Amino acid sequence: MAVQTSFDPQAFRAALGTFTTGVTIITTQAEDGSPVGITANSFNSVSLNPPMVLWSLAKNARSLPVFSNGRHWNVHVLSTEQETLSGRFAKQGEDKFAEVELDTGISEAPLLQDCTARFQCRTAFQYEGGDHVIFVGEVLAFDHSDRAPLAFQSGQYALATRKPRSELRLATTPPPPECSYTEDLLGYLLGRGHYQMLHALRRLLKNQQLDEHAFFILSVLCIRDNLTIEELNTFVEYTGHVVSLASMRFLERQKLVAREVNGEQVRYVLTADGREASLQELALAKAVEEDISAKLGAGDAQALKVLLKRLIAASDPGLPDLWAAR
Amino acid sequence: MAVQTSFDPQAFRAALGTFTTGVTIITTQAEDGSPVGITANSFNSVSLNPPMVLWSLAKNARSLPVFSNGRHWNVHVLSTEQETLSGRFAKQGEDKFAEVELDTGISEAPLLQDCTARFQCRTAFQYEGGDHVIFVGEVLAFDHSDRAPLAFQSGQYALATRKPRSELRLATTPPPPECSYTEDLLGYLLGRGHYQMLHALRRLLKNQQLDEHAFFILSVLCIRDNLTIEELNTFVEYTGHVVSLASMRFLERQKLVAREVNGEQVRYVLTADGREASLQELALAKAVEEDISAKLGAGDAQALKVLLKRLIAASDPGLPDLWAAR
Question: What region holds the Flavin reductase like domain (chains A, B) (predicted)?
């Protein structure tokens, strides 16, 4: 950590950016009645009694005169689903409020919908802050919803995963310290998560007289039909379940796949029954996912997927794209 | 979203808390030379030129006179590894600086080590802010490291997962829209992540002449030795790999497990070779995890584990605690 005393603006910005923030849109009404809004992450709470919040605005911002002259403005803490709105209000030029539905607030300042929290404010103070003006507002009204809040860190949108107050343990007793195999092992957590998901499908698979291996083959064919055994294996073999002639014969006997022979090449396609079986599995997998997402909350469920995708990219042994155009 | 105009302080606090922040410790030196420090999340950037930051402090805080009279203070943006330090500086009473190593800064204000970013400031303004005082500081020096920053949301510490600018896709082509099986399916992501981890162990397992099923059995015995087949299955069966007499006979022939007969009950224990094989697998799993963690970054790797544990708890079919005391 070399201390920098010369002010490279980019380095300063990068250092400031490490402080995580939420994302807000702050709105007001211009004197001509037109709505004005900007994206800001310089928001913060100030006072509980009287209730006050603050944010700051660049002195060269086009909207500065409007906010300086206006008495009322609204702060909207954005949810993870409002990233597009955030992007729109961060830019200049276009009609930011086009097709944006508004609620009626206590002032004329536009009040956006579907936010995580909203604060309707009246300017209490405007303070000098270098190249910015600091607006301190008295909060006249507020509300908040259960929507997961959007975060921002080092120039990118982010999803914040709250940590439980005590170390999250799956079970009730701490593992013996001398045991180097702990449940904090990433491989264990991935395996347990995966098999618990599969476990939830097990009853359906049993009714379909299928095992995990058959389920994988049907899934691949459901996404990408008409494959040779060799091609199937490029998608399945890394799981350790190698697709063999016997695997396919079993599925043929079950009337879930059919073979198409072209000269010496044998390709497999799903039958109508096979597609139906696979879509039933998919529907159940989605239902299980919805149940888990509800328990985790939308923000955490989304964060988990982002992280799993990053893990998959980081450990990819070079698998072909199952969804690639052909 | 019912608008609240009456100010229930708890509801107001809850609404404010939805705005995600980083966590800072702000330090100064009292007139008697003693170090002073508090945890604050009311920090924010204000101005780039001149470089300025702000934070606010309750008027009834014991440290207010010191900060009001002092000219210099340092802001430390905390890393995910400084949660304990954050907790210590959030409380009153104890000697917060005991055994805390300090760097030499440009003022007498204490400069903490191992932070994500640090800003050494001189008070530029002190502003009225209801029950708080707003401190605006000119930044005289700053630095930042690669340490993942700690976040705070709704009263809990949090880990922020940055989202890639474009939707993160594993492969290069978007899936056909009519295909309902997408790679955004949680079950797919978990399975692919799990099997890619296993794939990285495959060469070792092959050298050991073991398959995934044998690997699971050895892992369980490494954590919890001396089990009957029935007991082994309480930990393994949910994976779909049922432990049978044949599974155990295979491991006996490989001289990795031994049986201990007590009347009619047969229990299995690892041999020295079995323990050695299992610990080799564990070492490789940890090496793979380290490689992935380095690619993901420490903060994201930690967030992934927190989320996987939450997923496991949310989808637990009631597995016994593998690490429970006996």
Answer: 16-159
Say whether A158 and B160 touch across the interface (CB within 8 A). yes
What confidence tens digit (pLDDT) does each residue in B108-133 have? Answer: 999 999 999 999 999 999 999 999 99
Query: What residues in A contact B130, CB-CB < 8 Å?
Result: 46-52, 124
Q: CB count, 10 Å around CB of B304?
A: 27
CB contact (8 A) between residue B175 and residue A317? no
For each of the domains in chain A, give its residue range(s) and CATH number, in order of start.
Answer: 15-159 (2.30.110.10), 186-314 (1.10.10.10)
pLDDT, tens only, A24-74: 999 999 999 999 999 999 999 999 999 999 999 999 999 999 999 989 999
- Kindly provide the ipTM of the predicted complex, given to two decimals: 0.84
**Strand, helix or coil for residue A146:** coil
**Contact A160/B160 with Cβ under 8 angstroms?**
yes
What's the rounded Cα separation, in Å, for the pair B229 and B226? 10
From chain A, pick out residues whose CB is under 8 angstroms from the CB of B181. Answer: 219, 222-223, 278, 282
Could you tell me which of A77, A74, A76 has the C-alpha nearest to residue A140?
A74
- pTM for the model stands at 0.85
- What is the side-by-side strand order in the sheet with B44-47? B35-40, B24-29, B72-77, B117-129, B132-144, B52-58, B44-47
What are A52's two structure tokens?
A: 């006050």
CA distance linking residue A36 with residue B254, whole number of Å: 75
Q: Between chain A and chain B, how many beta carbons pairs sit less than 8 Å apart?
A: 503
User: Residue A318: which of B293, B170, B203 has the closest Cα?
Assistant: B170
